């Protein structure tokens, strides 16, 4: 069980509309930051700011130590084999694009024979799922268009779960990449990673995992999951914006061609050609997001100190209160699973559609009550289309979310249809 952690998060002490206390239920979009993260970033900026791996003076040494120390913390959180399997990126979207663009560059001949394993072209296929966030769909659409490969997808059932029986047919001997979410940002369903990985290995395909919604909320061990690459972001795991991470198997990262070029990533430069450092440095051209990385490392330490099993249990309990309340609410539809027999397969979030009321209007009513939620299509338009809606309202929990927050959300949601005069 987690203790009440609200005092660790200074923003949660403020009031919002007309002095109402804040019930922050938008952590699936961006999480709040604890004192530990804010302090780590402030201390670095005030006392240790310098260029990483660019000088021999004390501040440069301290900055490099802080930067690499943060990488080691994040590596421990996801059980990377070594810190060198963690690549700093601008965000998770950039991490996913790094993999897609690197594969595209390999397909154009960059990287030579070392990178030939990644080549993809006409006659090959890339497989995604109907549940993907746009960040794990569009890069693969673009790679398919660039290389002539075919894009395919695994469909989603009425309960929000993948139709796993399609793995045997959609993924075949032409498949080179299988990219899928670890947990849906709409339904909260946690994917059967083992089933995806097993089928991908049968046909020799690489697996790319969108772990944005899992790393902040669940115990995650990328080595045990068996995927080849995974992306996640700082701002969803109690850290700052402007930083994310790509995890990859070292033997793959070392031969994946970079797609952003410049100083820091290079081994030797002549006027005719350039050679690259091994990973992760080969992907970190230019000035690094040092303060942000320090914050993300501090967030990883904060979560590990809490214990990710306890984090997951706490958040699922909050979400189950919401799911059960919604299931008894007339005119409100829950997207995804309702009951708790499979609670371990669902994240701590609940996404609803209120009949007869636009999702933005739902959000406005809740906002007036001091309740912050996410409204819209959540960057998952194909999944909303699958459910026959254009948008929804999502309440998502984190370590600081309380049962009172959940009950306030349910009370506010119950008032929406009456507020707009929608018949019962």
Automatic annotation (TrEMBL):
Q: What PROSITE patterns does the record point to?
A: AA_TRANSFER_CLASS_5
Q: Which reaction does it catalyse?
A: (sulfur carrier)-H + L-cysteine = (sulfur carrier)-SH + L-alanine
Q: Name the source's superkingdom.
A: Bacteria
Q: Which UniProt keywords apply?
A: Pyridoxal phosphate, Transferase
A GO MF annotation of the entry reads: cysteine desulfurase activity
Family per record:
Belongs to the class-V pyridoxal-phosphate-dependent aminotransferase family. Csd subfamily.
| Purpose of the protein | Catalyzes the removal of elemental sulfur and selenium atoms from L-cysteine, L-cystine, L-selenocysteine, and L-selenocystine to produce L-alanine.
* Protein name listed in UniProt: Cysteine desulfurase
Q: The organism's lineage?
A: Bacteria, Bacillati, Actinomycetota, Actinomycetes, Micrococcales
């Amino acid at each position: 069980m987690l203790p009440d952690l609200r005092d660790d998060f200074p923003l949660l002490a403020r009031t919002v509309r007309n002095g109402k206390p804040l019930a922050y239920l938008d952590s699936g979009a961006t999480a709040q930051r604890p004192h530990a993260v804010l302090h780590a970033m402030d201390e670095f900026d005030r006392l240790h700011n310098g260029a990483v791996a660019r000088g021999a003076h004390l501040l440069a040494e301290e900055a490099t130590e802080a930067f690499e120390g943060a990488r080691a913390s994040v590596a421990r959180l996801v059980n990377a084999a070594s810190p060198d399997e963690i690549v700093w990126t601008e965000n998770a979207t950039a991490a996913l694009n790094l993999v897609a663009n690197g594969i595209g560059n390999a397909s154009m001949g960059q990287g030579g024979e070392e990178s030939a394993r990644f080549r993809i072209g006409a006659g090959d296929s890339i497989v995604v799922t109907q549940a993907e966030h746009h960040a794990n769909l569009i890069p693969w659409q673009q790679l398919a268009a660039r290389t002539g490969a075919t894009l395919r997808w695994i469909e989603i059932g009425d309960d929000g779960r993948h139709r796993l029986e399609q793995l045997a047919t959609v993924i075949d001997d032409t498949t080179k990449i299988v990219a899928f979410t670890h947990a849906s940002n709409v339904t909260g369903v946690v994917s059967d990673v083992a089933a995806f990985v097993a089928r991908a290995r049968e046909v020799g395909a690489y697996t790319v995992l969108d772990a944005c919604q899992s790393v902040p909320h669940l115990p995650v061990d990328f080595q045990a999951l068996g995927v080849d690459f995974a992306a996640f972001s700082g701002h969803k795991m109690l850290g700052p914006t402007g930083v994310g991470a790509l995890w990859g198997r070292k033997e793959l990262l070392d031969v994946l061609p970079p797609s952003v070029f410049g100083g820091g990533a290079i081994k030797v430069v002549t006027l005719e050609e350039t050679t690259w450092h091994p990973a992760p440095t080969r992907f970190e051209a230019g000035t690094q997001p040092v303060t942000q990385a320090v914050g993300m490392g501090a967030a990883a330490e904060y979560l590990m100190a809490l214990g990710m099993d306890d984090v997951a249990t706490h958040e699922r309990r909050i979400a189950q209160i919401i799911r059960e309340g919604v299931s008894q609410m007339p005119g409100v539809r829950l997207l995804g699973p309702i009951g708790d027999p499979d609670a371990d397969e669902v994240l701590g979030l609940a996404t609803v559609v209120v009949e007869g009321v636009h999702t933005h209007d739902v959000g406005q009513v809740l906002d007036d009550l001091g309740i912050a939620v996410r409204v819209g299509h959540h960057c998952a338009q194909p999944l909303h289309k699958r459910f026959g809606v254009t948008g929804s309202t999502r309440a998502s929990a984190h370590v600081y979310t309380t049962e009172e927050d959940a009950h306030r959300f349910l009370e506010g949601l119950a008032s929406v249809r009456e507020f707009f005069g929608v018949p019962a």
